[in-house]
Amino acid sequence: MIVNAAPPFKELSLNNYLFNDESLKLYEDYISKTLDHVQKFLANRKFYKGDDLEEIRNNKEKAKLVSIANSSPIDHVLNELNSLYIENAICFHNPNYVAHLNCPITLPSIVAELIATTVNTAVETWDQSTSATFIEQEVIRWICNEFSFNDQSDGVFTSGGTQSNFMALLMARDHYAFENFGINIKQNGWSEEVNKFKIFCSEKSHFSIQKNAALLGLGYDAVIPVKVDAKMRMDTEALYVAIEKTKQEGNIPIAVVATLGTTDYGSFDPLQTIGKIAKEQNMWLHVDGAYGGCYVLTETHNHHFKGMDMVDSVTVDFHKTLFQPVSCSAFLVQDKSHFKYVSYYADYLNPIENKDIERPNLIEKSIQTTRRFDALKVWLTLKTLGTKTIAAYLEQVHELAKQVYDYMNDNPNFELAHVPELSTVVFRYKNSEAAHEPTHDDVNLYIKNTLFKAGKASIASTKLNGNIFLKFTLLNPKNTIQNLLNIVRMIEETGKQYQPKTELL
Question: Domain-by-domain residue ranges, the chain?
Fold first, then answer.
């Protein structure tokens, strides 16, 4: 009996909306019409159209999914999306956006996003990713080499710094428990000894250290904040005292987190001294380089990375200082055997008997299962721009921060929190009519909110010693000192408009 050959794929297709060879023309049409809206977005000269409460409420209604039983023309839907989202989006590439760690992005990385999304590669197993696996491995090898890690190092792409820091604390906890108490937390769960584990970090470190300690069952109180010096760097004498105090209280120091580029101040903790203390105390040393990590490429900041040979793990965010679209982050370890603390072998996905050194499964290093092919963005950027161009971008924004600091430092209307080590400047406007702190706090929040709602400039705020300060986070190498000083003038003008309610408390 002769069985008829299976019909070709085209005859089986029910819908041209699914991406395949027969929908290529429709794909091109979609891309072309989308590009029209992107061009209008880029033509906008304001970082934000402005804040209007009534429009915000209307947009909440527009976002609702109603009347979606039947299909609609892409033109109509894109127009809806433009009105709801694109016209209201924050333009991170605009030079008046100086608020958070959002960078302008490279053109090669956008091309990589288009390719990765269109092909839709998932990188958890070889049979889904094939040679994409090698691209991720090569990017990991590159950044490990930049940090002067040895040949036993390895890493994996993550969703961001918080996830990378989570992996670091998990490994620190499980490794200490296994090496010192023979406890296999991954297999057997909790124990009384683990309740005594303590982690040390700068009081200016990222909130994810406390958050992740809680998620790992250790609790917020397992994290011991260490005071900083005048440059907002961890005080190493205070670190040593805190470790000894913890031991005297019957608790167990297991890890210390050194931050290379704190979120608010861009400060670099003294890695060499912290590393020596960590090794003397048999503690895991993690470096949170989410912000400052890519500055290892520069000549201006390379000295901050001396001592990396003592580091056990590193967080680095390419979507902050390698000019990549979110999300694009990596977690690295000096000893790749430590990935055993997160590995799992599922029969349907990556059975251990199928382990193949020539065809690796990256899921063995990840706490995620499904992962996007984010490494392609970095690979294509490196191949196209080269590291010297990226380093020049980073040095430019650092130089801008220094110039803004020098101007403000000579201006009696401003109080500066620190000398910038990276690309952040923390300051506050001092209202000349006010003498007490609550009014200074009020006027600085007024400045921030007024400029944002008007779409004039986006600046961030933070707290120092309980007082409100403003912050420039400079990640746009196309910015200029003239533009930044114009924002400073807007701050002064807006501050003068504020009328203190009273000087009486």
Answer: 122-376, 388-497
Residue 218 DSSP symbol: S
In 82-160, beta strands by DSSP E: 97-98, 154-158
Query: What's the rounded Cα separation, in Å, for the pair 412 and 432?
Result: 9
Sequence-ordered list of residues with C-beta below 8 angstroms from that of 319, at least 6 positions apart, any chain: 103, 160, 325, 326, 327, 328, 329
The answer to pTM > 0.90 is yes
Token duo for residue 275: 């590393």
No. of H helices and E strands in the chain? 17, 12
DSSP one-letter code for 208 = H
DSSP 366-402: -S-SS---THHHHHHHHHHH-HHHHHHHHHHHHHHHH
Q: Find the helix or strand (DSSP H, E) in which 170 lies.
A: helix 161-181
Q: What is the pLDDT of residues 382-435, one digit of tens each?
A: 999 999 999 999 999 999 999 999 999 999 999 999 999 999 999 999 865 655
Q: Cis omega (within 30 of 0) on the bond before 423?
A: no
Give the Cα separation of 289 and 223 in Å (integer): 19
432, containing H or E segment? none
Q: Which fold has domain 388-497?
A: Aspartate Aminotransferase, domain 1 (3.90.1150)
H or E element at residue 289: strand 284-289
β-strand pairing of 329-333 with 313-317: antiparallel
Q: Is the pLDDT of residue 2 over 70?
A: no
Note the pLDDT tens digit of each residue in 426-467: 999 986 565 556 688 999 999 999 999 999 999 999 999 999
CATH architecture for the domain at 122-376: 3-Layer(aba) Sandwich (3.40)
